[in-house]
Write a structure and sequence with these properties.
alpha/beta, Alpha-Beta Plaits, TIM Barrel, eight-stranded mixed barrel, five-stranded mixed beta sheet, 24 helices, 16 strands, 13% strand, rod-shaped, binds ligand C2E, binds calcium ion
Length: 684
């Protein structure tokens, strides 16, 4: 069955195939539900008094859920009654024998048989209590029935032959009930009945017996009250503690599995669920689909509105995804602004794309936070489990598709055979780059930057080239990005910088060397140290070096970049903002980042012939540089017409194929000589 994302607007709690998609709500905090002490409205004096007495005998159980508390209380008293009845069984078995020994056969037949019946009844009820849990009312009734049976046996004994001393047994019975009975009513009833009976028999006996047993009854009542209170108190405390610890355990489990901000399942639970689903799946089942959703430019939302605002946006988007997700999907937050959706019955790639479109449409609905309407968009990378064996592999594929989705306008990509081939090349390149001898394998070409007014060369930008024996020529964007990801970029930059400085030493003054830096080079103080050291050791004048950084990269870790660029400036080197105009161009950054030069991205020149407006945009940027006293280099001039237009717009420095494609270091002297000749011819 193809996924019908949003086919039903189903809430997040429960529902659907719980075997596949159990959803767990946060455990209720003890005290969140109905509580023993829950005061509905302001408590009256009588309520307060009742609560005080309750606490005295039951312990402080304000924090526990009343129904669960009661269930556990009944269970505890069930055990107590069971133990008491087992003791009574033994007692009455022994007693029936003593009747025979003391009273002979007649005594045994009259009283011993009653003892045997009581022993059998106690044993039967004790056995039943050990087998199944019963309710409070049933427990009360059994307790009462047992009490009455034993009580009547005691009465029968006293009637058969009275023993004043055995009147104490009534009070012992009442004390046993006080300890083992869950019901205060039964306890009170047993005390009242036993006390009245004792006083009756003692009154009949007269004399000292009456007075003594009046005291005994009084003492037993006091002890009985104490026993009831102490037993109930300690049981209640233990139950309260166990409820709190159960809640803490449930809460800890919940926290371990859920994202605290959105309440959605977290990465840990996501992986567990995905692994379980992959393991459960058999070949006849529809494939499982995985979507990784990354919010576009979410960092901007945080930067512009603050992190608390960003958090609220994430919460709303998380809720929306969860609500839109039916029981065949599983939504989790797997990273800062990344969500994942597992689709149980994903169908084919087309229905997966449809699902991705639904997700995007859902996210693109305006989010209202603090009265502000914000529109967020997302990129979605998707993969189908057909051959991907493990959760990690499936996630890797969806992640790869996500990186492709980010480059596409549609913002949705499903991992396919082409991506699979690309990905395996990338991972082979990755392997190679980890152990690559950069000095031996990667070389430089140098592209001139030319002053369009004088025709003089301003300098050269060093551009890395890798002609791999294994993969052929690899584009710098590709291997630089991979080197950044696997953390070898600083080593690469150092090697490139050292060699290009060495080459530039041969150039006549005041020709500049432009070197590209990656954000990774700026993020680490150790990498900046190494760059400064290489510059100093090279002996090349720092003021003839221009480090190029792109604004988009700088914005990834603005503060680190700002500090690093300040250090390079302090060294005397210049800083150029590369690819200007396509990122989040912000003049404030130019000021703070110690920028000396702005390089207008070559996409503007490429659009010159199609749009008159582009010319005005380029002019604005050139004028802005002039106002800010920055140098300006326009990139990408390929034709004489483009150059003429740029000249008319006031451009001074141009880098592009018109003046020269990137060339080997050995070709530079000839290139410079040709330039000099041309200028001389022009003058002539
Ligand atoms: P970039 O810094 O913007 O370099 C300019 C790119 O534009 C170069 O591509 C260059 O060959 C190309 N280009 C120059 N003029 C023209 C033109 O008239 N038309 C067209 N179509 N293209 C032109 P390349 O060498 O492929 O470099 C691509 C990117 O790779 C560079 O863009 C830079 O971001 C990065 N890169 C290259 N070498 C290095 C390096 O050593 N370190 C670092 N971190 N990045 C490098
Ligand atoms: Ca550059
Ligand atoms: Ca550029």
């Amino acid at each position: 069955m193809a996924t019908d994302w949003h086919a039903r607007e189903i809430g997040t709690a429960g529902g659907g195939d719980d075997r596949v998609m159990p959803r767990r709500s946060r455990p209720a905090r003890p005290g969140e539900g109905d509580t023993h002490a829950a005061s509905r409205g302001t408590p009256s004096v009588a309520d307060g008094l009742r609560q005080w007495v309750w606490r005295l005998i039951s312990g402080d159980c304000e924090l526990v859920d009343a129904a669960e508390f009661d269930r556990r209380l009944v269970a505890s008293y069930q055990v107590m009654l069971q133990i008491t009845l087992m003791a009574a069984t033994v007692y009455y078995l022994v007693k029936s024998v003593t009747y025979y020994l003391v009273d002979g056969l007649t005594g045994f037949l009259l009283l011993g048989s009653i003892s045997l019946i009581i022993a059998a009844a106690c044993a039967a009820v004790a056995r039943e209590l050990s087998k199944r849990a019963i309710g409070r009312r049933e427990l009360e009734l059994r307790g009462l029935a047992m009490f009455l049976m034993i009580y009547l046996a005691l009465v029968a004994h006293q009637l058969y032959h009275f023993h004043a001393v055995k009147l104490i047994l009534f009070m012992l019975l009442a004390l046993a009930v006080a300890t083992a009975s869950i019901s205060h009513a039964v306890t009170l009833f047993s005390f009242a009945t036993c006390t009245a009976t004792v006083l009756f028999f003692a009154g009949q006996a007269g004399g000292d017996v009456r007075t003594q047993y009046a005291f005994v009854a009084f003492a037993a009542a006091v002890v009985g009250f104490c026993l009831t209170a102490m037993t109930r108190h300690s049981i209640s405390r233990e139950i309260s503690a166990s409820l709190v610890s159960d809640w803490l355990r449930a809460e800890a489990e919940y926290l371990a599995d859920h994202d605290m901000l959105t309440g959605l399942p977290n990465r840990r639970q996501f992986f567990r669920r995905l692994n379980a689903m992959l393991a459960d799946r058999d070949s006849a089942d529809a494939p499982i689909g995985l979507a990784i959703i990354d919010l576009d430019r979410f960092k901007d939302v945080n930067d512009t509105h603050g992190h608390l605002f960003g958090d609220e946006v994430l919460v709303q988007i998380g809720q929306r995804l969860a609500q839109a997700c039916d029981a065949t999907c599983f939504v989790a937050r797997v990273g800062g602004d990344e969500f994942a959706v597992i689709v149980c019955e994903a169908g084919d790639p087309a229905s997966l794309v449809h699902c991705g479109q639904r997700i995007c449409a859902e996210i693109e609905q305006p989010v209202r936070v603090r009265g502000y309407d914000l529109q967020v968009s997302a990129s979605v990378g998707m993969a189908l489990e057909e051959t991907a064996g493990s959760a990690t592999e499936l996630l890797g594929r969806a992640d790869y598709a996500l990186s492709r989705a980010k480059d596409q306008e549609a913002g949705i990509a499903v991992f396919d055979a082409e991506m699979a081939a690309e990905r395996s090349t990338v991972s082979a390149i990755e392997q190679k780059l980890r152990h690559c001898d950069f000095d031996a394998e990667i070389h430089f070409l140098y592209q001139p930057q030319t002053d369009v007014l004088t025709g003089e060369t301003r300098g050269f930008e060093a551009l890395a080239r890798w002609d791999s024996a294994e993969f052929g020529p690899v584009r710098p964007e590709v291997f630089i990005t991979i080197a950044e990801r696997i953390g070898t970029i600083s080593k690469l930059t150092e090697s490139l910088l050292r060699r290009s400085l060495e080459a530039a030493r041969a150039w006549p003054e005041p020709l500049k060397l432009s070197c590209n830096l990656s954000i990774r080079d700026l993020e680490s103080p150790a990498a900046v140290d190494a760059i400064c050291r290489i510059v100093t050791e090279s002996g090349f004048p720092p003021e003839r070096i221009e480090f190029e950084v792109t604004e988009t990269l700088v914005m990834r870790d603005y503060e680190a970049a700002r500090q690093a660029l300040a250090r390079l400036s302090a060294l005397g080197a210049h800083v150029a903002l590369d690819d200007f105009g396509v990122g989040y161009a912000n003049f404030g950054h130019i000021d703070q980042l110690h920028i000396n030069t702005v390089k207008i991205d070559r996409s503007f020149v490429a659009r010159l012939k199609d749009s008159a407006r582009t010319a005005r945009v380029i002019k604005t940027m050139i004028d802005m540089c002039a106002t800010l006293e920055l140098e300006c280099v326009v990139e990408g001039a390929e034709t004489a017409e483009e150059l003429e237009t740029l000249r008319a717009l006031g451009a001074r420095n141009v880098q592009g194929f018109f003046y020269g494609e990137p060339m080997a270091a050995g070709e530079i002297p000839a290139f410079l000589a040709r330039g000099t000749m041309r200028r001389m011819a022009d003058v002539g």
